[in-house]
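Weekly sync notes, structure subgroup
Attendees: PM, AL, DS (notes)

Item 1: joint prediction request from the bench team. They want all two components modeled as one assembly rather than separately. Inputs as received:
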Amino acid sequence: MKEDPLVMSMLFDFYGEVLTEKQRDFFDLYHNRDLSLGEIAENTGITRQGVRDVIVRATQVLRSMEDKLGLVGRYKAVQNGLVEIRDAAAAIEEINNRRYGSGPVREYAQRIQELASGIAEKT
Amino acid sequence: MKEDPLVMSMLFDFYGEVLTEKQRDFFDLYHNRDLSLGEIAENTGITRQGVRDVIVRATQVLRSMEDKLGLVGRYKAVQNGLVEIRDAAAAIEEINNRRYGSGPVREYAQRIQELASGIAEKT
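Output from the run, pasted for the record:
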């Protein structure tokens, strides 16, 4: 049943808030904290099958949200673009440093890198 | 009942896919195509109150999604950052053009502007 941990973690980050509290807790324990179905069952007083059903349902809800909204796919495209922006701004900064040292181009190039990092954290 | 059209339009763009087909259709007719409740009722053979109930419910669903996922708020922050990036890259390009004309800095600065525009369309 265990699926790609990175995908599960991203789906949970993006859409976890739409799950019920129980779905969110069990999903988190299983996928992010790596507890087994049996351990979650033991800790919560529910059968192993009951725990499994909750997690399967939570996974369906998260996948259905991604089918509808596609945020994880978009996230990757945006992050790749931001990395390219930072690289290009860093290249400008380096060329400018060799020629002039400080100055407005350096400041703009540094500002671009800061902004791209800020956006990367927000998306 | 009519709420801020820009907010409604953004909520619909981001989360419209989670609505039922009927909710989506009625919401779209009312908020995006500016039909009245009475006109929608007439076109669909449902009572005016029935149309209203569907749209009120659709609005609740969209608002609840935004409360949970916050994409509209994040979108604005990201777009503002991208505008700043484009402005800074354009400023670099201008300074560079005055000093050198073409060259690697110009290409990097143009590439940054392209990338920022590409990301702006994806978010």
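Discussion: Residues 92 and 109 of chain A are 7 Å apart (CA to CA).
Action: AL to compare against the crosslinking data before next sync.
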